[in-house]
Every structure is written in C-alpha cells, then in structure tokens.
Amino acid sequence: MLIVPTELVKKIDDNRGDMTQAEFIGFLIDGRLKEEIKEQQYATKEEIHSFKQDMEKLLKSFLDFFVNYGLELGEQSPKTEFEELTNKLQGLEEDLDPGTEKGKATIKWK
Predict the structure, then answer these.
(1) What is the C-alpha separation between 84 and 40, in angstroms, rounded?
(2) Looking at residue 65, what is its pLDDT?
(3) At residue 105, does pLDDT exceed 80?
(4) Can you tell me the distance from the alpha carbon of 53 to that of 61, in angstroms, rounded to the nearest whole number?
(5) Phi-psi region of 39 (alpha: psi -120 to 50; beta: other; left: phi over 0)
(6) Cα-based angle 33, 37, 41 (whole degrees, multiple of 5)
(7) What pLDDT does 10 receive?
(8) Dist. CA 19–CA 25, nearest whole Å
(9) What span, in angstroms and rounded, lies between the C-alpha atoms of 93 and 82?
C-alpha cells in the first residue's frame, strides 16, 4: 500500500491512459532510472589558455591586415572613394524624390 496526496493520484489518473496506477508508476520509475545522466564537460585551464592565445593571434592578424590595407591605399584613395559614394548617394536622392526631403540620404564622415 502506498499513501500519496490526492493531487498526485489525480495527476496519475489523468495521464495513465489504459495502464493501471501501478503499471503507470512502474513505467515512470523505469523510464527515470534508464535515463542517462549527461555529464557536464568543462574546459581545462590549458584549453582556455590556448583559446586565449589563438584569439589574440586572430585579432593581431585582423589588425595587421587593416593597417597594411590602409597603408597600401595611401591618403588619396579614401577621398576618391568618399567622393564616389557621395555622388552615388546624391543620384539616389534625386531618383527617389527630387522635390522633397523625404528620400534624403546623408553620410557624415569624421
């Protein structure tokens, strides 16, 4: 004999379907005991240190790329690109609606 609260008996009866109460409780217990408990895996100190070094190398390579890219362009190229972009935006502005401020596109560069 098993004494359980009335609410638990109601839950069992609502969910057991064609099984008896005993079969349903046995089914739940067997299912719970057969579940594999997944172990949480944590990174080791060495793995974290290696990850940190790899990220620093990656960031340095990005920085080197952008610095070298900027040096190769020189000082005149960005101005030319900026003027081309400004002209394209002005053309788009005129195409959208030349009579109103509604379609205005503006970029501010520092």
Answers:
(1) 55
(2) 83
(3) no
(4) 12
(5) beta
(6) 175
(7) 92
(8) 9
(9) 16
What whole-number distance in Å separates Cα of residue 26 and Cα of residue 30?
A: 6
- Measured between alpha carbons, how far is 57 from 80 in angstroms, rounded to an integer? 33
Going by C-alpha positions, the residue among 21, 40, 41, 24 that lies closest to residue 32 is 24
Token representation of residue 104: 């205005």
Instruction: Give per-residue pLDDT as tens, 10-28.
Output: 999 999 889 999 999 999 8
- Residue 74 Rama label (left phi>0; alpha psi -120 to 50; beta): left
Q: How far is CA 48 from the centre of its chain?
A: 21
Quick: pLDDT tens for 22-59.
999 999 888 887 766 666 678 889 999 999 999 988 88
What local confidence, expressed as pLDDT, does residue 38 receive? 60
- Chain centre to alpha carbon of residue 109: 30
- Report d(CA 107, CA 110) in Å as an integer: 10
